């Protein structure tokens, strides 16, 4: 567990960090290095990509990726190759299906898995301008998990999608190709889903996630993972729990609705809601803290990311009183949140500036990356609300977690079928990679 201590980073008064934050992560100008935990993951994707070398430009080959672990237990991959690949319409397709959805349709699970794979192959046959290459591991099935976390039992399917027509394999074609693929594959998979008797109690449409992202994002070893707290790392919205405890739920809801209608901005709504908490005792805060529950998959996700060498950051529009404890429980390295002003054992109702709003979240992410001497292309951000969009927009990968429609639409990927462990599936890992 990380022991967090308050530090004074320049321009970051909301910060609670560990001393490890001062240590830059290793990345040379030409290569990104990866630890042994990433080797099988990268090897699976690159092995699949090598099967279609003849479809790539002649100057773009992934034959010389060093998977051997040297004295520093690190392999390396050319950043130049990744950057060139990112400009092209070459995509990673990761499909995550809840196993119970396949079971519900009758027949053996193996038959249904084969049916699903056949349905994807059918799309490829109907779209000859595209090549679809399966990414293979020994198994992509989540095994029984003996830990304390609640994980969704899933099957994962991973593919590379790339043009078989050289006229499409052009940088200028990427955006249009991404939209067409997203619409076409999603619609095709929806046909298969509609054949399954998936009811609302079985998850409905949320029984499947389909992620289509640039393959470069699968191959680039990310180094920093940033998380929102409320309704992301934890299941609750803390301000709502505080309002319930103080019997001001209706008043807080009115302010929230006014903000959603655009009548007041986030900072004003936050200030008004905090003012209503005046007099709430620290005993009440502690009671609420005890009632907060981690989101399903949170422990597994953070443990896996740490094993892969990620530096983790919590950036919340909530309060350090709760965020620091959640971070300690999950072993998160660094925390940014609003300070809840307390005097004589009670909340004063005053707001300490600056408020951690959406713009400040993005600024914090930029400052963390700069301090770590890392480009934003090695950062991923995960959140659920509109206030998370600015930081998600500047990260290499912005992931929406059980989010509102506007957030899902603007994110690089959206998780609905699993808990937070789904972030690993977005990153291209198989179910068997989870700790």
Automatic annotation (TrEMBL):
Q: Which residues are named in the active-site annotation?
A: 228 (nucleophile), 230 (proton donor)
Q: Which Pfam families match?
A: HAD
The prosthetic group or cofactor this protein requires is: Mg(2+)
User: Mind listing the UniProt keywords for this protein, alphabetically?
Assistant: Amino-acid biosynthesis, Hydrolase, Magnesium, Metal-binding, Serine biosynthesis
Gene3D superfamilies according to UniProt: HAD superfamily/HAD-like
Classify the source by domain of life: Bacteria
Please give the catalytic activity noted in the UniProt record: O-phospho-D-serine + H2O = D-serine + phosphate; O-phospho-L-serine + H2O = L-serine + phosphate
Query: Which GO biological-process labels does this protein carry?
Result: L-serine biosynthetic process
**Family under the similarity heading:** Belongs to the HAD-like hydrolase superfamily. SerB family.
Q: What is this protein called?
A: Phosphoserine phosphatase
